[in-house]
Every structure is written in structure tokens, then in C-alpha cells.
Amino acid sequence: MGTTQLGRPEADGRTEAGRYGEPKYWHLKTVLTAALDSEFSVGQSLPDERTLAARFGVARATLRQALDQLELEGRLQRRRGIGTTVAPPRVGVDVSPRDQTLPGGPGDTWTTADGGTAPPPPAVARLLGTEPGVTARVAHRSLLSQGRTVAIEHVYVPGTGGTPGERGGALALLHALAPDGQDRAVELGSAGADEARRLDQLPGAPVLVVTTRYLLDGRTVAAAVATYRADTCRLTFGGRQPVTVPGE
Hints:
Radius of gyration: 22 Å
Shape: elongated
Helix content: 25-40%
Distance between the termini: 24 Å
Largest sheet: 6 strands, antiparallel
CATH superfamily of the largest domain: Chorismate lyase-like
Order of helices and strands: HHHHEEEEHEEHEHEEEE
């Protein structure tokens, strides 16, 4: 492979791109994107950082910044024991609360396991209006695409209804409550140690966090926190079915 240069070095060490306000790592990201499109296929491993830095004539710190950005944009994946590979197209996941659907309802493609009872995290307890340490029924859910986990979710329902150990017991209680509304908030976050392990990511990897409140007469009766791999999932609003869309 030939060497791609990033611009003519200036006397003060800046590239032509950097001189006009574009960070060096961002210009490198653009060059790497072109290389991914023309030289690599989905699932193919990239050379190690030392080789890439030498090829493109940059410091490894600059290279890591560019790789981090490409991972955030869903072009690359970093996996333990495998390294950095070209990511497959993102999975489109509809997160709109259309038709007031509930977890575990018709057409739900998530896998659900009953988690018994546990105190919700403080932020969820505040949403539910419960005191810290008060237990709730919990359902642990996971979403798979092509055999890999791309999202996890915890559903918290105050109360102790349902049969202990019953698969999806928390969801049975949620359905019995018959919420008449819901709202959702989406924000960018980073994977904690447990989330990273379950999603097969490195700790600190970018994730999309969707928090859902289930409402009855304007009161929050349940809450769910779903964590999606930002490099794998594209959240959509109003689509009828999850779809696979080309990467950008």
C-alpha cells in the first residue's frame, strides 16, 4: 500500500489542513474513511496502530483520536482479543412509543429474563418517585442482531407483584398496570464495566442511553433504561420494523 500524506508540514509543525482550523486528527479521519471505503471490507481487521501511524505520517495519539471518532460514527469496532475491525452496517431500532406498545408485547424481539427485586439506581428512583433503597421488580432484557448483543435494558416496576422467579415477572406486573402513556429521552453516554462486558465493548465506549417513563393518569408507574451500542445501532422514530441501513 502506498503512503497517504496528510498535508504539507509547515515550519511550526502544522499541516495545511490544521492551518485552516481543521484539527489534524479530523483530517486523518477523512483520509481513513476513504481508505476504509476503498481498501477494507466489513469485518476486516485494521493494521496495528504503529503500522497505521507510520503509513499516514502521524503521531499515535493523533491516530487514536481519529480511530475514536470513527468508532463513535459506527465505522469501526474495537473488541477484546480481536482488535479494530471494519463495522457492519448499523441496525436501525425504532424507539418511538407508537401505539403505546409495552415491553414483552406482540412483535417484541427482545429476550427477557426476570431479575427478581432490587433497588433501582438513584436516577431511576427519582423518576419513579420512590425513596432510595426501596426495591422494585426488575426485568433484564437484551437485543441481539446477527448473534451479538447490541443493546441491554433494565425495566423497573415498583411493587412486588408477579411470581418470584417467573420469567418476565416484572413485565407481567407492568402489563397489569395498563399504562396509558409513555415518554422517552435519548442521550449519549459511555459504557460502564458491566455494560461493556455484556455488550462486548471496552469500558468507556460510546453508547446511546434511552430512558422510558411509563405513565398512568400522568403519574410514572414504571421506568426503563436501555443502553445501545453507539457503533452498532441507529435509533429511529416511527419506523414499523427494525431495519439494517448502510453505514455512512
